[in-house]
Amino acid sequence: xxxxxxxxxGAVTLEWLAAILGVEVPALVAEAQESPAGAAGVYFxxxxxxxxxxxxxxxxxxxxxxxxxxxxxxxxxxxxxEGVCYEMALKFDFAREAAGVKLExxxxxxxxxxxxxxxxxxxxxxxxxxxxxxxxxATACGAALLAGIAVGAFENWQEAAGLIPAEKxxxxxxxxxxxxxxxxxxxxxxxxxxxKGFSAL
Length: 201
What we know:
Elements: H1 11-21, H2 25-32, E1 43-45, E2 63-65, H3 73-99, E3 106-107, H4 116-126, E4 130-133, H5 139-150, H6 157-161, E5 166-170, H7 174-195
Parallel strand pairs: 3-4
Antiparallel strand pairs: 1-2, 4-5
């Protein structure tokens, strides 16, 4: 069985923001580190390609909330990174509530796994340890391992997964997690319900 909790715009969020600001993605991530946790009150809902699991809405669009004339580009970059992490936290909450899934850790793969800041934010926002495997582009590798299980090359998924060890790990900071959880519940989780009615216009 697979429990799939999708977010349609993850790493593409940074690519989009970097492109419209005229900078490279690594430079944008470096700027994000200059912003405080919470992005000075700026939130980003990364529905660049619609909403995902728990907020499935193909017409939903992205938004920044909390902008002022003091908002910096670093705040926008940090908010973009945190917004994807807030979405992940909502999906994990949905998995726990809808299917009774017990989550112990997560693995970060793909383009977003290259950023240590983003991996640490994933840990701090969700409260889960984050592991980065040696194989970052993991879709094809995972398919090959599943095929190996199917033909009997591996006894079970645990044996197959053991072939892909974690290269780095990031532990959540309890204090930062508590602050992010407060922001998630008091502001971020209320953004989509507040604006979803506009999707039909």
